[in-house]
From TrEMBL:
Annotated cofactor note: Binds 2 Zn(2+) ions per subunit.
Single GO term (MF): 5-methyltetrahydropteroyltriglutamate-homocysteine S-methyltransferase activity
Domain Cobalamin-independent methionine synthase MetE C-terminal/archaeal: 433-756
Name assigned to this protein: 5-methyltetrahydropteroyltriglutamate--homocysteine S-methyltransferase
GO BP terms in the entry: methylation
Enzyme active site: 702 (proton donor)
Biological function: Catalyzes the transfer of a methyl group from 5-methyltetrahydrofolate to homocysteine resulting in methionine formation.
Keyword Methyltransferase: yes
Pathway, per record: Amino-acid biosynthesis; L-methionine biosynthesis via de novo pathway; L-methionine from L-homocysteine (MetE route): step 1/1
Binding residues annotated for L-methionine, in chain numbering: 438-440, 491, 606
Length: 766
């Protein structure tokens, strides 16, 4: 019985690639150094899977930034502004597209389906010239083969690539991206031919857009693409891989009718209804089913007995020799190896499986199906499953009772937002176009050292508190010098906006090396929500009160919202997600009320990940948005009219949920805008009325590029064309923690100068 892994984490067990990338970007190491680190990581991953007995091992899932950008490089679809002159795409062009450079901005970045992983959005149009410009897929296949590992090269499928793209600047928004299919298929044929010549026997095409609601025209594109590629596949086996949700019946019929395709991969963890489709529609004779029964997106140990039962049922449909045990998606979305976790207690550790352990689970299930069941492995798994179900640390009756009591109200503030804004203005006395930042300031090496030494008990609590106070004082002084209107304390006490809160809430566990890639070199360490959630004590009041005491200007209290904490954690899978979210909302509500009582008049409750959690199918969206928006309102429904509630969202497409954003009833929302070509503003041009305060980002903080005053002023003018002057705020796209002070200081100086310039122009126009 065969086993298969869809994809594997790239960063390394201790973020080796992250540090290599950042060293290269800072000019401290060479391209050869970066390539050496990446080659060592790939070699280790391939050998690990081979040693574990995996038959179908992926290659070309490694990336220096993301797999969609790699496909853009493969196709030579480089926007003109990067001045690429053809040939093999090198690091300069590649990283300019990802991060921007001194003269041009980066390409748009957005969320990969409903995950916290990001990809660089391709910019295409009728005049885009395609060419085979990156041979990475072939070179990595050859690299693995030289190590004695025969891999399955993985390509982002042509239809998914086009459906994830956007019309380039200046191209009509109605332009059909699928009309470019004929332009890119010749390049896919070249890649396939080279892989075949190099000795590849299988190729995997990732087509995750098949799980979305596609119209007949879009489905026909899959038929067209793979029919056109059929002649290229001669002598090869090809699998189309889908993940993250159920495959709708129409899409299932479309792809399983493709003669050129040898196998089909389905996510049977988040796509449990696909099982019913397979049973009702049947499965094509002689084809392979890659059954994704091991969760690629969470860290809970697989229920091996239940998975084996599912596989045995599928075996009766597709045949023993055509069933392949697989992960539900790439393991990119989970942590690397539980072996590196030295501080998790044994009970919780027994409930978990990271990527390395999931590889073993896949192989154990494949062997069990083949009649070689490892009884000890299955027995230990069953004991861990039973332990988790019966553990008293999972359930808190008081928390469950409080969450159940929420169902009788929609938790709206008593006064409408217009009246609240009037009351807040009387108290805060802000100018028009008030300036603020999103929360974090640069996290210096010294600051990280202080936090690290405090956690390791190498410095006293007093020394730690004094160091953080000093950093807060520095950040406050900088903002006052820039003349920013509403200040932040810079979050020097926080390594991560979710981890910080999770560490202070019950029901959470934490890892030492459970890092997961978010984008580029950016990694996050998601908390593990294993039980009912409550707040034992105040979490931010001490630091916010200190910060407010240092200035007469309004100081924002900075919180992470319940939906974002949920979506950026590894969430328990033994109760509905909305129940866990309501528990978190009650804890944040307590914190909001304590901040207000401490004299904090502006409180930001970030919901950066609200859009990210939106289900991939339209039929499921309303239910999610209802409980997600409700959870946010729970957090602040009890505050005074004079307390201004902010929220922040970033790097997703918000236009389709704008009415739900309005329904959140925040007083002010700051929202990513600049990197996405001000796509957000189109909603307001189309007539959506927004009465609360709003700050569409005026510059991209994920790029080292420093915008000029004129550029920012121009952005503000575009906003004023569709938004009322009295509700518009001026702010960056997102927090500043990933930037250096050498970038932040001139950028914020220019931002404030632009706001003041526009205030003067508006005053003189009256």
């Amino acid at each position: 019985m065969a086993s298969h892994i869809v994809g594997y984490p790239r960063m390394g067990p201790k973020r080796e690639l992250k540090f290599a990338l950042e060293s290269f970007w800072d000019g401290k190491s060479t391209a050869e150094d970066l390539q050496k680190v990446s080659a060592d990581l790939r070699s280790s991953i391939w050998k690990q899977m081979a040693d574990a007995g995996i038959k179908y091992i992926p290659s070309n899932t490694f990336s220096y930034y993301d797999q969609v950008l790699d496909t853009t490089a493969l196709l030579g679809a480089v926007p003109e502004r990067y001045n690429w002159n053809g040939g093999e795409i090198g690091f300069d062009t590649y990283f300019s597209m990802a991060r921007g450079n001194a003269s041009v901005p980066a390409m748009e970045m957005t969320k990969w389906f409903d995950t916290n992983y990001h990809f660089i959005v391709p910019e295409l149009g009728p005049n885009t010239k395609f060419s085979y410009a990156s041979h990475k897929a072939v070179s990595e296949y050859k690299e693995a083969k030289a190590l004695g590992v025969d891999t399955v090269p993985v390509l982002v499928g042509p239809v998914t690539y086009l459906l994830l793209s956007k019309p380039a600047k200046g191209v009509e928004k109605t332009f059909s991206l699928l009309s470019l299919l004929d332009n890119i298929l010749p390049i896919y044929k070249e890649v396939v031919a080279e892989l075949k010549a190099a000795g590849a026997s299988w190729i995997q095409f990732d087509e995750p857009t098949l799980v979305k609601d596609l119209d007949s025209h879009q489905l026909e594109a899959f038929t067209k693409a793979y029919t056109e590629l059929e002649s290229s596949f001669s002598g090869l086996k090809v699998v189309i891989e889908t993940y993250f949700a159920d495959v709708p019946a129409k899409a299932y019929k479309t792809i399983t009718s493709l003669n050129a395709i040898t196998g089909f991969g389905f996510d049977l963890v988040r796509g449990t209804k696909t099982l019913d489709v397979i049973k009702s529609e049947g499965f094509p004779s002689g084809k392979y089913l890659f059954a994704g029964v091991v969760d690629g997106r969470n860290i809970w140990a697989n229920d091996l007995a239940a998975s084996l039962s599912t596989l045995e049922a599928l075996e009766g449909i597709v045949g023993k020799d055509k069933l392949v045990v697989s992960t539900s998606s790439s393991l990119l979305h989970t942590a690397v190896d539980l072996v590196n976790e030295t501080k998790l207690d044994d009970e919780i550790k027994s409930w978990l499986a990271f990527a390395a352990q999931k590889v073993l689970e896949v192989n154990a299930l494949a062997k069990a199906l083949a009649g070689q069941k490892d009884e000890a492995f299955f027995s230990a798994n069953a004991a861990a499953q039973a332990s988790r179900k019966s553990s008293p640390r999972v359930t808190n009756p008081e928390v469950q009772k409080a969450a159940a009591a929420l169902k009788g109200s929609d938790h709206r503030r008593a006064t409408n937002v217009s009246a609240r804004l009037d009351a807040q203005q009387k108290k805060l006395n802000l100018p028009i176009l008030p300036t603020t930042t999103i929360g974090s300031f640069p996290q210096t090496i010294e600051l990280r050292r202080v936090r690290r030494e405090y956690k390791a008990n190498k410095i006293s609590e007093e020394a730690y508190v004094n160091a953080i106070k000093e950093e807060i004082s520095k950040v406050v002084k900088i903002q006052e010098e820039f003349d920013i209107d509403v200040l932040v304390h810079g979050e020097p006490e926080r390594n991560d906006m979710v981890e910080y809160f999770g560490e202070q809430l019950s029901g959470f566990a934490f890892t030492v090396n459970g890092w997961v890639q978010s984008y580029g070199s950016r990694c996050v360490k998601p908390p593990i929500i294993y039980g009912d959630v409550s707040r034992p004590k105040a979490m931010t009041v001490f630091w916010s009160s200190i910060a407010q005491s240092l200035t007469s200007r309004p100081m924002k209290g900075m919180l992470t919202g319940p939906v974002t904490i949920l979506n950026w954690s590894f969430v328990r899978n033994d109760q509905p997600r909305f129940e866990t979210c309501y528990q978190i909302a009650l804890s944040i509500k307590q914190e909001v009320e304590d901040l207000e009582a401490a004299g904090i008049n502006v409180i930001q409750i970030d919901e950066a990940a609200l859009r990210e959690g939106l289900p991939l199918r339209k039929s499921e969206e309303a239910f999610y948005l209802d409980w997600a928006v409700h959870s946010f309102r729970i957090t602040n429904c009890g505050v005074k009219d004079t307390t201004q509630i902010h929220t922040h969202m970033c790097y997703s497409n918000f236009n389709d949920i704008i009415h739900s954003i309005i329904d959140m009833d925040a007083d002010v929302i700051t929202i990513e805008n600049s990197r996405s070509d001000e796509k957000l503003l189109s909603v307001f041009r189309e007539g959506v009325k927004y009465g609360a305060g709003i700050g569409p980002g005026v510059y991209d903080i994920h790029s080292p590029r420093i915008p000029s005053t004129e550029e920012i002023a121009d952005r503000i003018k575009k906003m004023l064309a569709v938004l009322e002057t009295n509700i518009l705020w001026v702010n960056p796209d997102c927090g500043l923690k990933t930037r250096k002070y050498a970038e932040v200081k001139p950028a914020l100086t220019n931002m404030v100068a632009a706001a003041k310039q526009l205030r003067t122009e508006l005053a003189s126009a009256k």
